[in-house]
Amino acid sequence: MAEHGGPVRRSRLYDYAHTAAPDASETADDPERGRQEFAVVLGAFRRTAVLVPLDPDTGSPLAADFGGVRWFYAFSNEGALARFALARGEGGREWPYQRWLGARLLDAAVSAVGVPCGVALDCADGEDGMVFPPVRGIVPDAVAVDVGAAGEDEGDGR
């Protein structure tokens, strides 16, 4: 984390997500546009290295369970990670992290967990944060929670 007042490095994803994020009123009237906008952000996330904080006890990616889903924490820059640490009341401790491609989180880490799992990006930043839930098109179909429902929808057409 940048503690000495130096420049805060931001990933390209941070800038890209802000320019690509649709206005909620625009996408409410045009769901297809919303899907396209999300696909752009998802593609940028998959190609971008993000900061993944490590659990101090296990050294594995830091995660939390919420709503029946395990969420890996990921951050677009050190400032976002610092805001998360402060929000948790843990700003005074060391926060070890690794840089991972978003694709590695979504394809490999999520698949290895064994329970429904997604990624929460910049979760301490309110509306500027984003979640990538464990659904088709975001995570591998083998671990997507909506694959069974999709198969039923695509059944025999009755």
Structure explained in plain terms:
- It is a single chain.
- The protein is α+β, with helices and mostly antiparallel strands and 158 residues long.
- The protein has six helices and six strands.
- Helix 1 (12-20) packs antiparallel against helix 3 (31-47).
- The relative contact order is 0.15.
What is the gist of this entry?
This protein is α+β, with helices and mostly antiparallel strands and 158 residues long. The protein has six helices and six strands; from the N terminus they run αααβββαβαββα. The strands form two sheets. The chain has a four-stranded mixed beta sheet, with helices on one face.
Would you spell out the secondary-structure blueprint of this structure?
Elements: H1 12-20, H2 24-29, H3 31-47, E1 49-53, E2 63-66, E3 69-74, H4 78-87, E4 97-101, H5 102-113, E5 117-121, E6 130-132, H6 147-153
Parallel strand pairs: 3-5
Antiparallel strand pairs: 1-4, 2-3, 5-6
Helix pairs in contact: 1-3, 3-5
